[in-house]
Specification:
By secondary structure, this protein is α+β, with helices and mostly antiparallel strands. The protein has helices spanning 132-148, 154-222, and strands at residues 30-36, 41-48, 52-63, 72-77, 83-89, 91-97, 102-109, 118-128. It has one domain (20-191): Jelly Rolls (Sandwich). It has two helices and eight strands, in the order E-E-E-E-E-E-E-E-H-H. The chain crosses the membrane at residues 201-220.
Length: 237
Amino acid sequence: HFPLLYCGGAVKDLRPDVSDQELFWGTDQYDFAIVLPASGLECFWHFAHQGERFYLDFMVQWVTGVANDRHLSVTVNAPSGLIVGSADDAKGQIAFNAGETGFYQMCFSNFHNRFGSMQIFLNFGVYYEDSDDVKNQKEEEEIKKEQDRKHLNDTLTTIEESSSRVQGFVFHMWRYYNFERMRRGADYYLLQSNSNYVSTWSVVQSFVIIMAGYLQLFFLKKLFDTKTTTETDKPRC
């Protein structure tokens, strides 16, 4: 369970009026679903360091109400308040390199639907990617490490590099798996909605056919003038 956050401006430093449990920290990755009411707005904050890769995947799973629209308006603001990413679609991805350290604000608006709510699935987080600053920092760290581990076997270095690459590949596979899970969830809700729609209209059409047959029989009987016969009053040719 993830608590809902207060809507408002992006912050660069920790807000004194917001507890740690209401903010998403560090390089953790999160995936969960929320329900936005009609014309609703929901905002979350995630902390990122300069040079980290920030990503956000979203997908609308189901929509209710009259004249519903599956479009979702999404904006991502930097700690300084500038918009660094936006989208207006039923699903999408926003990714960028964090240019400053602080809390990045993600806002999701359902203003397209004034009479219906929607459920959306979110997957967001940050990770390191080889940018110029990060690469230079890693090169300096590697030089220091080489001086400290001259006596170590080269096999350990190879294992470490291979483990880092495998960890990166596993992380991206996990992202693709999460996005596929979002798509399968949306397909399930769509099939369920279509099944309810077909069942409802089948019952309505069956009722209309039965009533139409009954009315036809009723009007046909009205075309014939029938009289009751007795012993004294019998039908004549």
